[in-house]
Task: inverse folding
C-alpha cells in the first residue's frame, strides 16, 4: 500500500464497519506499506503491532500486555544469521540496515491464529539481494518464535518469490529448470515450505498440478492478456490450521492492479476427534469483543488522533460562509443608518448627472443606497456613426476560382477618390483562351469577353465589387485603356479565365498533356507521396507496425517499426481500447540473442524485430 499517513483519507482508513491497520515506511513515504482491514462486527483482533522485530512502536510504546509476544521472544540480532553484504561485511543490527523500517509487516492476534501480513522486498538489483534475503530470514525467525509459543500462524502477502518452476511463467523451459533453486531466495523458500519446513502453501494444496496459476503480471509487457506471469503471492498456514481450511484459490479475473487477489475460506465450525464441535467465532475469541464494542488495538486507525476527534483538523479553524455572514452582516436598515456619507470624498462625482457629488448630497446626511440599473445600449454607443458597417461577405459554394487570388489596384483607391453615391465602371475586352495578355497590334480572330467592374463608394454597407460578365463574340482586336496598370490587367485576365472555366465546366486551365507525359508525371507524384511500406519481421514474415517515440530524449518524435505481435505492448502505452489480435509475450518469446537461447525461441509470440523508419526509407530509395 504505497501511501503515507498524512495522505490517508478517512474513507480509506475506516471504510464502513471495517477497522484499518497500517504500517508505513519510517523514512521513505509512499515507497511501500501494508494494510489489514478487519470487520469490527465480526472479528476484532485482540492485539496488533507493526514490524517483525518489535522495535516499531507508537508514540506511547506498547505495554507488555499489548504486545503479542514476550519481549525476549522477538528476533535478536546477536543470534541472527545475516546474509553478507556486497562488500563481505556482516550487519551489526537490524537498525543498521533498516531491515524493519520500510513498513513491510503487520502482526495481528486473532486468538485462533496470529496473522502476519508482509510485503517482502523485490530483487530490483544485485545490491538489493542481501536486504531481500535478510528480510526473509527475519520473517522466518519471527514465525519460529510464535510457533514455539504454541501459536498457529497465517503468513500472507507478496513474498516476491516463485516457489517452484510451476509458479514461473518460463518454468517449462529447460534453461530455467536447471539451477532453479540455486538462487538464495528460492533456496530459502523451498526450505521453509512443507515438507521441509513448517509452512503449508494453502492455495496450492487444492490445486497441486494446476498450470498458469499466476498472481502477478508485467504491465509494461501487457503480459496479463496472455497469462505470462508468476505466482509470488501466497497464503501460508501452519499444520494446526488444516482442519479449519475449507478452500483456497486466486481471482485472476479481478483487475485493478498488476496483482490479483488470493483467498482462503475457513469452516464456520469443526468437530474435534473428541466429538466436540467448536465454532470459528468462539475459537478466535473475538466475537464477543467486536459485538460488545470494545476498543480496537491502539495502532488501529480508529484510535489515531486525526480520526478519533482528539486532534483538530485544519477545517475546524474556518467557519462556513453562511454562519460567517449571519454573524458579521448587519441588517439592511442598520447598514443604511450607519453608512458614512460619500459626498465628502474628494474626486468622487455622480456618474449619472456628471456634476459634483457634494452639491447633491449635503454633508452630514446619508444618501440612500440604490442599486444601479443597467442602461440599455444604444446603437450610437456601440458603433460610431462615421464608421462604415462591415458585413461578412457570403462565400459562394464550391472551389475558389483563380480570380480570388488577384485584387484590382483601382478597387482599393477608387472608393476614396470618388464622391459618395457615385460609381464608375470600366469595360474592357480580353481574349479568352489565351494564357498571356496580347498586345494591341495583334490581329488574331478570337472570342472576347466583356467585363463591367462596378466600384462602390465607402458609404455603402460594405465595400464590395459586382461583376457583370456576358460573353460576346466579335472580330475586333483587344483594346486596353491607356491609364490601366499591369496589376489591373492581370486581375481582369484572371476574371475572364475564371468565367470561361465556369462556362466550359473545365477543372484545369493548364493545357492538356499528352497521355504519355501525363502518365509519367502521375507516377512520379504517386511514388513521391505514397506511404512508406512497412517491412516484414524476420521471424513471422508479417508486416510490421509503425510507432512514434514519445519519451523525452534525442529520439523523441522518430518513427520505428516493430513486430506486429509486439505492437500490442506499444498500443497499450499510447492509447486504450485496442483490439488485441496477437499474444505478444509468453514462454520463449524472443527477448533478443543476448537474453534468449535461439533454440528456446517460441515463434508463436513476438520477435525482437526493430528498425527505424529512416532506415526503411533509405532502403526503399536504394531499391528504386
Result:
Amino acid at each position: 500500500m504505497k501511501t503515507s499517513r498524512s495522505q490517508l483519507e478517512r474513507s480509506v482508513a475506516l471504510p464502513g464497519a471495517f477497522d484499518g491497520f497500517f504500517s508505513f515506511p519510517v523514512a521513505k513515504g509512499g515507497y511501500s506499506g501494508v494494510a489489514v482491514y478487519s470487520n469490527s462486527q465480526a472479528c476484532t483482533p485482540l492485539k496488533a503491532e507493526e514490524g517483525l522485530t518489535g522495535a516499531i512502536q507508537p508514540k506511547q510504546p506498547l505495554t507488555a500486555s499489548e504486545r503479542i509476544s514476550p519481549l525476549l521472544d522477538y528476533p535478536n540480532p546477536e543470534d541472527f544469521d545475516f546474509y553478507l553484504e556486497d562488500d563481505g561485511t556482516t550487519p551489526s543490527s537490524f537498525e543498521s540496515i533498516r531491515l524493519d523500517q520500510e513498513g513491510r509487516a503487520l502482526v495481528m492476534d486473532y486468538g485462533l491464529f496470529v496473522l502476519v501480513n508482509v510485503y517482502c522486498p523485490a530483487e530490483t538489483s544485485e545490491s538489493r539481494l542481501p536486504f531481500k534475503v535478510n528480510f526473509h530470514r527475519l520473517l522466518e525467525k519471527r514465525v519460529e518464535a510464535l510457533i514455539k509459543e504454541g501459536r498457529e500462524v497465517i503468513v500472507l502477502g507478496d513474498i516476491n518469490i516463485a516457489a517452484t518452476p510451476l509458479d514461473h511463467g518460463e518454468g517449462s523451459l529447460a534453461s530455467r529448470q536447471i539451477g532453479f533453486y540455486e538462487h538464495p531466495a528460492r533456496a530459502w523458500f523451498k526450505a521453509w515450505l512443507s515438507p521441509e519446513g513448517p509452512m503449508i502453501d494453502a492455495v496450492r494444496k487444492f490445486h497441486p498440478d494446476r498450470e498458469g496459476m499466476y498472481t502477478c503480471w508485467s504491465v509494461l509487457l501487457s503480459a496479463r492478456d496472455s497469462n505470462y506471469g508468476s505466482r509470488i503471492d501466497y497464503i501460508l498456514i501452519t499444520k494446526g490450521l488444516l482442519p479449519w481450511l475449507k478452500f483456497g484459490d486466486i481471482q485472476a479475473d479481478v483487475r485493478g492492479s498488476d496483482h490479483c487477489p488470493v483467498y482462503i475460506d475457513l469452516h464456520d465450525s469443526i468437530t474435534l476427534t473428541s466429538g466436540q464441535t467448536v465454532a470459528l467465532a468462539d475459537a478466535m475469541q473475538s466475537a464477543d469483543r467486536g459485538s460488545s464494542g470494545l476498543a480496537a488495538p491502539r495502532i488501529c486507525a480508529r484510535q489515531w488522533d486525526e480520526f478519533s476527534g482528539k486532534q483538530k483538523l485544519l477545517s475546524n479553524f474556518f467557519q462556513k460562509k453562511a454562519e460567517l455572514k449571519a454573524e458579521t452582516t448587519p441588517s439592511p436598515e442598520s447598514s443604511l443608518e450607519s453608512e458614512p456619507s460619500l459626498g465628502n470624498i474628494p474626486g468622487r462625482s455622480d456618474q449619472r448627472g456628471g456634476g459634483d457629488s457634494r452639491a447633491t448630497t449635503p454633508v452630514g446626511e446619508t444618501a440612500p443606497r440604490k442599486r444601479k440599473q443597467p442602461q440599455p445600449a444604444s446603437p450610437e454607443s456601440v458603433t460610431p456613426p462615421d464608421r462604415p458597417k462591415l458585413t461578412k461577405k457570403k462565400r459562394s459554394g464550391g472551389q475558389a476560382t483563380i480570380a480570388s487570388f488577384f485584387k484590382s489596384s483601382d478597387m482599393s483607391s477608387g472608393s476614396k477618390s470618388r464622391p459618395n453615391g457615385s460609381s464608375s465602371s470600366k469595360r474592357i475586352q480580353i481574349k479568352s483562351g489565351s494564357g498571356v495578355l496580347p498586345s494591341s497590334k495583334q490581329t488574331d480572330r478570337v472570342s472576347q469577353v466583356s467585363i463591367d467592374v462596378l466600384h462602390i463608394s465607402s458609404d455603402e454597407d460594405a465595400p464590395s465589387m459586382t461583376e457583370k460578365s456576358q460573353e460576346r463574340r466579335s472580330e475586333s482586336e483587344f483594346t486596353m485603356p491607356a491609364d490601366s496598370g499591369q496589376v489591373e490587367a492581370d486581375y481582369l485576365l484572371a476574371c475572364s479565365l475564371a468565367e470561361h472555366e465556369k462556362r466550359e465546366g473545365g477543372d484545369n486551365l493548364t493545357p492538356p498533356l499528352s497521355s504519355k507525359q501525363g502518365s509519367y508525371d502521375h507516377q512520379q507524384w504517386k511514388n513521391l507521396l505514397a506511404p512508406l511500406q512497412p517491412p516484414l519481421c524476420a521471424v513471422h514474415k508479417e508486416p510490421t507496425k509503425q510507432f512514434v517515440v514519445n519519451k523525452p530524449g534525442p529520439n523523441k518524435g522518430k518513427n520505428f517499426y516493430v513486430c506486429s505481435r509486439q505492437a500490442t505492448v506499444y498500443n497499450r502505452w499510447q492509447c486504450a481500447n485496442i483490439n488485441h489480435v496477437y499474444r505478444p509475450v509468453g514462454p520463449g518469446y524472443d527477448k533478443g540473442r543476448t537474453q534468449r537461447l535461439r533454440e528456446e525461441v517460441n515463434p508463436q509470440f513476438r520477435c525482437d524485430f526493430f528498425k527505424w523508419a529512416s532506415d526503411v526509407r533509405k532502403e526503399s530509395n536504394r531499391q528504386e
Summary: Confidence is low (pLDDT under 50) at residues 326-367, 377-384, 408-484, 569-582.
